[in-house]
Amino acid sequence: MRILVFAAHPDDELIGVGGTIARLHEKGAVVKVIIYSRGGGGIAAEEPIIDEHMIEQTRDQETQQVAKYLGFEHVTLGIPEIVNKREAVKAAVKIIREFKPHIVFTHNPLDHHHLHISVSNVTTEACWQAATKAYGYLGEPWRVSAVYYYEVWDLFTKPNLIIDVSDVFNKKVNAMKLYKSQLKVFPGITEYLEALARVRGYLIGVKYAEAFKLSDALPGVISKDLALLLKTSEKD
């Protein structure tokens, strides 16, 4: 199974899908993460004045460490802002058709962060476009089985997929600590991850879990393969 994750910034993939990525990797799935921005704005107020290029280099190195630790491939596009949506959709279609993912994870479209929203919208449209004959020069059509939205800061009121990550939750926390530059930017982030994971776990009677919402943008079959692979609990 091939899993594709789209993230706006380095660490979004970890906050939203980190435990699931770790579980999928352990089960033998191939996971690829596409990161748009290099995260040049991730500088804490108390840090000495440095330019964005320096923090981007640091975050690139941190992402490489996290990818190696959790077992995913990654590509950082270096796009801090999606200005031309058509070109962004085409680029995502090309990625989807080349990688041929069975499942795609992306941001919650109702998130407050503008780049999170843009990445969500671009990903959702690209998954639909990739299944059509449009943009034939970008590769053969590929139909994704399902698109799931994940949480970062804005939480779902009614998630419909909960994945048990109890066995790998420590890996998620340890991976967050590898994003060392962001621990001062988001003080208490590891406590946040634990609190949210406990709340989501409570919904299905496990210690730690991650929550997702199935996109209705694509007609198709709900990913039974994913449920079987992870022994997940799907909620109505």
Q: What Rg do the Cα atoms give?
A: 17 Å
Instruction: Let me know the CATH homologous superfamily.
Output: LmbE-like
* β-strand number: 8
Shape: globular
Description:
The chain is α/β, with parallel strands linked by helices and 236 residues long. The chain has a single domain (2-234), classed as LmbE-like (Rossmann fold, 3-Layer(aba) Sandwich). Helices cover 42% and strands 16% of the residues. The chain has an eight-stranded mixed beta sheet, with helices on both faces. The radius of gyration is 17 Å and the shape is globular. The two termini are 25 Å apart. The model has no long low-confidence stretch (mean pLDDT 88).
Any descriptors?
236 residues, alpha/beta, Rossmann fold, 8-stranded mixed sheet, 16% strand, globular
Short summary:
The chain has helices at residues 12-26, 52-70, 85-99, 114-130, 169-178, 189-204, 224-230; strands at residues 2-7, 30-35, 73-76, 103-107, 146-150, 161-164, 209-214, 233-234. The chain has 236 residues and is α/β, with parallel strands linked by helices.
